[in-house]
Amino acid sequence: xxxxxxxxxxxxxxxxxxxxxxxxxxxxxxxxxxxxxxxxxxxxxxxxxxxxxxxxxxxxxxxxxxxxxxxxxxxxxxxxxxxxxxxxxxxxxxxxxxxxxxxxxxxxxxxxxxxxxxxxxxxxxxxxxxxxxxxxxxxxxxxxxxxxxxxxxxxxxxxxxxxxxxxxxxxxxxxxxxxxxxxxxxxxxxxxxxxxxxxxxxxxxxxxxxxxxxxxxxxxxxxxxxxxxxxxxxxxxxxxxxxxxxxxxxxxxxxxxxxxxxxxxxxxxxxxxxxxxxxxxxxxxxxxxxxxxxxxxxxxxxxxxxxxxxxxxxxxxxxxxxxxxxxxxxxxxx
Amino acid sequence: xxxxxxxxxxxxxxxxxxxxxxxxxxxxxxxxxxxxxxxxxxxxxxxxxxxxxxxxxxxxxxxxxxxxxxxxxxxxxxxxxxxxxxxxxxxxxxxxxxxxxxxxxxxxxxxxxxxxxxxxxxxxxxxxxxxxxxxxxxxxxxxxxxxxxxxxxxxxxxxxxxxxxxxxxxxxxxxxxxxxxxxxxxxxxxxxxxxxxxxxxxxxxxxxxxxxxxxxxxxxxxxxxxxxxxxxxxxxxxxxxxxxxxxxxxxxxxxxxxxxxxxxxxxxxxxxxxxxxxxxxxxxxxxxxxxxxxxxxxxxxxxxxxxxxxxxxxxxxxxxxxxxxxxxxxxxxxxxxxxxxxxxxxxxxxxxxxxxxxxxxxxxxxxxxxxxxxxxx
Lengths: 334, 377
What we know:
CATH superfamily of the domain at 159-368 in chain B: MetI-like
Largest sheet of chain A: 5 strands, mixed
Mean pLDDT of chain A: 89
Number of domains of chain A: 2
Radius of gyration of chain B: 26 Å
CATH class of the largest domain in chain A: Alpha Beta
Number of helices of chain A: 14
Shape of chain A: globular
Structural class of chain A: alpha/beta
Radius of gyration of chain A: 21 Å
Helix content of chain B: 55-70%
Helix content of chain A: 25-40%
Structural class of chain B: mainly alpha
Oligomer: heterodimer
Shape of chain B: globular
CATH superfamily of the largest domain in chain A: Periplasmic binding protein-like II
Distance between the termini of chain A: 46 Å
Strand order of the largest sheet of chain A: 10-9-11-8-12
């Protein structure tokens, strides 16, 4: 019923989605980007009130592409419930809000996912004292699980497939799961791997907790825009792709100026030295150069916000480039 | 007259501190047992909480004397056995807790509004306040001044409400909601009791509809549906839309509270007022409402406190009030895991405001002697 209502609310607004978002943004003078109300590593205000995180960087990258200025963005906080109506009604130009790309959201809700900026998936966290190294050894464990979520269904499927049993301890929020696990009321806590990492980082002694290698669901998180405005969708899509391609080509915020005189044709095309790709997107010729200069490539953004050197310590894993064992892949820049 | 006995002092055991203890805590063995149990709990708890919140706590520096800039530097993370609360997260982010993302150069406008709010409200609350009449004139214009100060205009740079946050949002929602809902509630309450069927039906419908849905639903209605009813091209501000929802919600509850007061006024009061030739409005303004509102004070304060706390629900529609800013702080990787400190601080701030409101209501009740001889003194 809830879902029906939200679909209704969204479809009521679908007509409000008009073409020409890029012009609207340009006329307004800043980008309105929907983010979470606070999620470690993805979007959260830092001590000085600046939004930081992987999703926040995505917003800034689009602002840079359009205006050449990373500060020309207004962050609109949205919750899991309000994010879709907010986008559909045109209150934000795009969402970069830790949102899983699914067929119903892409098709039925009338949105367009333009790419994936983080491959997430459901994982398991246990106290390392449990002496378990694989989720298949968790027979008979008590599992803390958020009720009414897809994680609950995934969990049931996984245990049934492996022919092992578990006891569910239903919880409502992430904080509750955290407290229950730390207090030893459950042996295992399961939620998205990025969420597990932030739970682990918040522990008194992170070394005492272990995230198991099994990932039992696909949660591709990416930025999305409204259906039907392909020009704007292209701008957001290629802002993301530019960051990924820059990593592929080894262009970083440090060496981007030197790379302008590179002899690799794709680098020259990316940085706007050759070709007229900016013009095609109705952006400045050096839009991608500015993204790399002001935000950095994908790797830089990843390392700064969620990577192994941050408290979250999320290894690249699936999010490594396709050439390095991951599945991060951007179409060629030509 | 001589045989009047000398007045003797009452027995020692019934007066003074000892008597008070005997009367209130140890009047029979059940009470004594409960008292001892509670005292034991307090004895266990109070030293621990004082130690954690004050004596062993970090405020700006940890036990090594370094200024704390992230979670790893907190004493309670470095030394989980002995470290107390790490208030540095509040210290570092105090600005955000108070003003949200309001531009730092413009923050004097918020501070000035806070001061003016005090100047506007205090004389309103205490009728012995010197020059109260003149201050009350200011109270009437304060909302207009505050609007332009906070929002911008009249030569001030506009500050989008998207940048407001923390206590500022909580206070704007709470104060506006309570202040606007009061007159609306009176009108609705009178309307519901009106003899004109159309008016009475409309008011009843409105009140029952609003009371029949949760505040969250109304917030969503304000956020998502309201723009649909506005003419093309008019972009209503997010905070304003939430304010509309909060005010409607509060006014329906206020109306029922005041209606309760109205119903307690004896029919004779109405008849007496009519018989000396007062019109409908004169009767209500001069005779009925003053009594009705007086006896509904406890309930009015009750719903106001309820609303003040309900403002935390606005996080659902993406506004960062005091609690929302706290959650945002917890999501910053620099500070992950300091939930106790943040929630303690937020509840303390809410407690100060709601406790203040409830004490004020007690003071009013005492002053106006509500409930005693109601309607007849």
